[in-house]
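Posting for a labmate who doesn't have an account.
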Amino acid sequence: MKALLIVDLQRDFCPGGALPAAKANHIVPVINNLMGKFEHVIASRDWHPEESVHFSVWPKHCIRHSEGAKFHPDLQVDQIKQTFLKGTEGKDDGYSAFEATNKNLNEYLGQNQIDQLFITGLTTEYCVKETALDAVRNNIDTYVIRDAVAAVNKEKGDEGKAFAEMEEKGVRLIFSTKIK
C-alpha cells in the first residue's frame, strides 16, 4: 500500500509568508493532481507555539491557529485523511513528520499497511529531507517527488545537497509523471 505525504504546505512557507520557498506556488497543482493516485493522502503541519527555541534560528512562522499556519489556499485539503502536527512544543524543532505529537506517523503507516511513502511539500532541505530520512530509518520504501517539493535555499545549492544526501541514504528521487 502506498501513501502520499504532503509536508508543511503552509502559507508561511509560500511567497509572501514569513519563511518562503520561492517555488512553493508552483508545486500545488502538481500535488493536487497526484492526490487522486493515492488511497491515503496525509499531511504534516508545523504547529509552533508563540515562543519556541526554533525561533532562535528561524523567523517566527506557522504559529498555531495563525493565518501562516493554514494550508496553501489552493491545496485540495478535502483529500487529506490525516494531519500530523509537529514542532508543537517550545523546546523542539519538529522538522520531521515522524516527530508529530498529535498522532504517531509510524504507527499510522503500520496500521494502514503502508510500505511505500511518496513525499511532497516544503521545504526540500529541511522538513522534507528529515521526514524522508526518518522514513528510510523506519524501513519504509521512500520516494521524494522532485517536481512536488520546493526549497528555501537559505544557502545557494541547499536543495541540491539535500537531494544528494537523501539519495545517498536510500531515498528514491522521482518525478510526478512516473507515478501511475
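Reply:
Got it, the C-alpha cells are right above this. Strands lie at 2-7, 40-46, 82-86, 116-122, 141-150, 172-174.
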